[in-house]
Each structure stands twice: as C-alpha cells, then as structure tokens.
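I have been asked to look over a protein record a colleague put together. What it holds is a sequence and that sequence's fold in token form. Please read both lines and tell me whether the tokens look consistent with the sequence. I do not need a full report, just your reasoning and any doubts. This is what I was given:
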Amino acid sequence: MAAAAAHQIAWCTTITTGTVEIVIRNGWVILEGEVEWWYQKNAAEVAVRHLSGVCGVSNSIAIKSTAKIPAVGMDIEAAFARNALLDAKQIRIEIAGNKVMLHGTVPTLTQREEAERVAWAAQGVCSVDNHLAIKWSKTGD
C-alpha cells in the first residue's frame, strides 16, 4: 500500500515532487509535508483516498506560502467580483495571518460553498472560516 500511495502522489502533476511524505499505519494513510496551495493539499488526499486497503486518510500537509497577506485579500475580492454565482457586495472578507474569515449573507447554500471554494483557491490561504449566513427570501419579497 505504501508503494501504491507513493506512486499516486508521484504521478499527480499538481503536487511538486518531494513535498509530500507518506506514512501508513494500520490501513491509515498519513500525509505530511508542505505545499504552497490548498488545491495541492487536497490533490494529495484525493490521490490516495481510494487505493485498495486504505481505511482512511489523515491529511497533515501544511500550506506554506510566500504570498503577501494584503494581496491575498485583494485576490479573493477580485475573484468574488468575477464570479457570476456570487454577490460580492454581500460578503465581507477578514484576514488574520493566513486565515480567511467570510462574513455576510448569501441567498443559497451553493453560494456559501462557492465563496468558500473561491477563498481556498487564493495563494497563501491556510484556513477558511465560513461564517456566511444563508438568508433565503421568496422572489418579490
């Protein structure tokens, strides 16, 4: 199982070679190391999750980035503005270190999830706390 997991990680084109270490314990795959983007951390987990014999995955990969924090906030705001699914005026972004907190209201669960996905996609983001409330209203109210 360890060899299969190592091959899956090596074959994953989104993960930089040598950034992820794999430990196998009683069927659990433990991923460790450092990557620059959340999608790389996620890709490592997806790559090994469905291997034969895997009981579960513990993803302890850290996100380490050289991105400047003010730039992260501006990148997320610009991505919100470009996103047709989101009303960027209803979402407030708060940044503390590499942590992003989303506040405000959105009309649907889909928009809440999309806002979180967009925030995770910014370089340097290590965690996202989604505090967006869903405020549904009937058309015409």
